Amino acid sequence: VQLQASGGGLVQTGGSLRLSCAASGRPFGSRAVGWFRQAPGKEREFLASISWSGSSTNTADSVKGRFIISRDNAKNTVYLQMNSLKPEDTAVYYCAVSATGLPVGVRGSYVYWGQGTEVTVSS
Q1: What CA–CA distances, in Å, run from 36 to 74, 123?
Q2: By percentage, how much of the chain surpasses pLDDT 70?
Q3: 47-58, pLDDT tens digit by residue?
């Protein structure tokens, strides 16, 4: 599975962005997909994940209420809608495919990773 994350860019505080994660090579299948981010000098942080059917999601407390994950299996694409962005949201954002269909928040459960898309939030 090859993953292509896109949609990053420069946005002002309070703005919104929608990230996309498109799969190629083979579809997501019955696997969960997650979003993570990594800021300079920090560890990669779990943000949100979604089950293969889309009926179950898991969102980190740090972004709950601002970030929403969704998926369109017909398009082999998972989205991360990010609202009310803050300067501390500045990071490289990665999507990843889990080994299972469960939307877990454990980084080690994810076996395929995209190349990342950069998000910068200006103050």
Answers
A1: 23, 22
A2: 100
A3: 999 998 899 999
